[in-house]
Amino acid sequence: NRHVVVFGVDMTTTQREGGGVCPATDADGTCIDGLYTNVVVDDDGRHGSAGVGMEEDEDGEGEGMRNPVVLPSDEGDDDDDHAEKNGSCADEDERCATYAKSGGCKSNPGYMTYHCASTCGTCDAVDAAAKAAEFAVKDWNTAPCKDDEYECKEWAVSGECEVNPNHAVHRAWSATRRPRVFLYCDMYHSSSNQFGIGQRVGSEETKARIAQSIEYMKTVWTDEKFLSVRHRCMNQHEDCSFWASSGECEKNPSYMILQCAPACSTCEKLDISQRCPIEPGNEVIWKAGDLNALMERIVDDADGSGDYVQYNPTALSRPKLKRDGTPAPGVEKDGPWIVVLENFVSPEEADRIVEIGKAQGYKRSADVGKEKPDGSHADHVSESRTSHNTWCKEASCYDDPLVAPVVERVANVTGTEVKNAEYLQLLQYEPGQYYRQHHDYIFHHRRLPCGVRILTLFIYLNDVEEGGGTRFNRLGITVQPKKGKAVLWPSVKDEHPEEKDGRTDHEAMPVLKGIKYGANAWIHNRDYKKAYESNCQ
Ligand SMILES: O=C(O)CCC(=O)C(=O)O
Ligand SMILES: [Fe+2]
């Protein structure tokens, strides 16, 4: 009963006419020999199957690692010079007899036990190691080393595996010369099971790419720097190696480097902070003090001389003291900036944005969900947010003659740049719809090239018959929607613009009557647009 491991799927094989084994058949029974890389599993059971370990538990981390493989030791075998020859396995080194005569089975068990198993009488130990190897390989597929947990280093693999299928067992040595992880050499070399879905082999180029991935994955599994990504570095498609060999890693990197990371040798990119580094030149737009400076410019210089007079700015909440140390007139309670700007958009601009939103189609809004294996975050539909939205991220929206000036204005009024802003998020609330108390600051942005959200400028695009106010829960302030009006508030602290200011929690109160249309402009501390283009937001 022979089995073939085809990319982790253990298939009973059919015997072909002429005696050859067909590794797999397609739907109509035609042998597809040669199409896949595979490992023949012999009757003696020495070649275990290596399951594909793609399942992830809810936190995307996989299950905890099982205990490191415990390897057999030859302790107690103090009579190795007279060890009986054991016919059930062969020596691998022709000098075994010589070594054994000078006490090698005992003095150098790490080598002798496995290379001179017959001479030293340790075939059972080799078999046990072989079994351990099966588990090692299985665990290697399915059981990630969690950072700082267990003895990940002991999972080192050997780099000395020769391309010789008769060498059943090879081993890695730790610094202490104790064998640690055993692998079947032939399994290791002829299968790519270890790195996700088995690969279709159509050409020599594809085969070469698989061989290259295997070499690369040895490094991934031994080099510290891959610790956080190695367990999720897997080919997610059977054609990854074929595509990689045809240049797709370069032509189509946004798919390939994540979904075919072993084939593209891009495991490190599964760590979003490595894939999405904050490059030199991508500076923060705000230093300490810039928030207060901006808001004072908007509110206090609008007495007829400033640029902002047309918006009739009002601070519903602000710090008690001005930057020059004088008390802000009439301000009793110290608070974060909440500033209302009248007529921020014209009625024509408001109508046009709503019209584009309707044409695009509003869909149920989602929050930021769980981290995905590639380090980005999934969308999450929840009861805390029942509104519908769409994004102004196509040129047909943001380049519209009535929309482009609004996007520009957001940057000008806030002293930021268009590249720092997310594409406008267009919102629609029907009666009963709301967005419960939340904060717009998103923690994981801190280590991403877009930086954190520093400001929200929320634009009301119509008059709402009843309800639908924006309520700042901790401040007891509610802003009523009014067509063209905007409300501007920070998500961060003046003195630490990377840190969240929890005081600006807010919610969109349920609409009671009519429909509410609005738009969010979220402004980031670094270049958001570039991050967006590179899938790094
Ligand atoms: O609709 C509103 O008034 C506020 C919406 C909001 O806070 C958000 O979308 O983050
Ligand atoms: Fe919000």
TrEMBL record:
Kindly list the cofactors needed: L-ascorbate
User: Region annotation Disordered: residue ranges?
Assistant: 46-88, 364-385
Domain ShKT, chain residue ranges per copy:
89-123, 233-267
Which keywords annotate this record? Dioxygenase, Iron, Membrane, Metal-binding, Oxidoreductase, Signal, Transmembrane, Transmembrane helix
Where, subcellularly, is it found?
A: Endomembrane system; Membrane
**Entry's Gene Ontology molecular function annotations:** dioxygenase activity; metal ion binding
In the bilayer, the protein is annotated as: Single-pass membrane protein
UniProt protein name: Procollagen-proline 4-dioxygenase
Q: Which organism is it from?
A: Cyclostephanos tholiformis
Q: Show the taxonomic lineage.
A: Eukaryota, Sar, Stramenopiles, Ochrophyta, Bacillariophyta
